[in-house]
Specification:
The chain is mainly β and 429 residues long. Helix content is 7%, strand content 48%. The strands form 7 sheets. An 8-stranded antiparallel β-barrel has the order 1-2-3-4-5-6-7-8. A hairpin with a 5-residue loop joins strand 27 and strand 28 (370-372). The longest helix has 14 residues, at 135-148. The model is unreliable at 111-129 (pLDDT under 50).
Amino acid sequence: MAHGNDPTWSLRLGMKGPERLDRTGYPPIILDPAEVTSETPGVSWTYHAKDDVTGADVSVKLAREPCLDNPADPAAPKFTFSIALQHAQIGPLTGCGQSAPDRFPEFRKKNQNLDVDDDTAANDKDKSKDKGANAKDKDKDKEKDKLAVLEPITKFQSPTAVAYLDASGHIIFARAGVRKTVANEGSELAVSHDGKKLLYTRADSATGPQRSIVLYDADSGRSRDLVVGNGRSAFWSLDDSRVAFLKYDAASKTWQVWTFPIAAPESAALFVPQPLDALHGWVTPTTLLASDLQNAYWLSDDKPPQSVPLKEIYGPTYEVMSSDALRPNPINADLLLVTAYYVKAPAGAPTDSVGLSSTFFLYELRSHRRTALSPADTYARDAEWSRDGVQVFFTRGVPGKAALSTWRLFWDTTGLRSFSPGSFLAIGK
């Protein structure tokens, strides 16, 4: 087992080579072990592997030499090996390592010596092992091996305050197991972080841009209009003190980002003047994520805006549309959850009435690493993070073809299960 700091990471290196890379604030990366080279027999080795999702090259240089976890602290723990890891997308990671037989029961099963020399020998593939097995069996075994290196996620918090649309399109607010019908219709639900209030958009015209933002207070059971006729896509700030929304400018026929303190919605002010197509929420107490059809923008009231081309985020697999949702992870703003349509629907993927198939994926802004997350046989929309940042809730089902429902998936693609019969879930607490 290897680990390092700045950034914090850990690596599991098993009998066949590197198996899993973990980084704080990111889902684990499964690695496909490849060849091993030994620069100095008994002293140093280089293990090669591939990122199972992206195919990026990974190398791990392992040297038998004393390694201090914190060189600046003479009293810091000393480890047996020094580690230099290189991931083609993520970059270099350095740290220390030590044998950890209790973490690898397969060693005991095979009566393996735990010396690195024997690890290297064990890395050679037994080509006769799978002789006579068909390709399908091999694929199943490979998938089992992948799941075997993923430790079950047990530390997560199920939402206790949510809003969603029921089968009739009614807005339902559920808090501590108590469900209330808020309105007969609406969209763009947003629950406050304290779980006590709900914002939603009401359409005031069937054909034009006239929409209003409504506030529902669960304690009083009352609703009131905050923005009338020209607002949509409201989001609570991280401390629930402010609301950001898109306001329609009739003169330019564009949408712009405005904000107001929740205590004084009448004092709403322009946040940035540029036209935008979508607002995606608060990233920090002073920064909002928004987009047009070309770029994603990090807009701030205390520093210049930053942008990233959407084509860079989406790559060749996904189609850019104004209805897409980009959600920054609550514990790591570098990690985006993106709901989008495929450019070309995969074989067997369900499609809507116009032949499109919707899905969601993860994107790392710094490394440009893109990970498909939604099951391939699923039509999925409006993926949202849980507040703990390790669960994804999404609407499953093709509109007009099947009943919509909410499902949950962990960020490492495990734990898929049905969560609620409602759709377009918004999570508050």
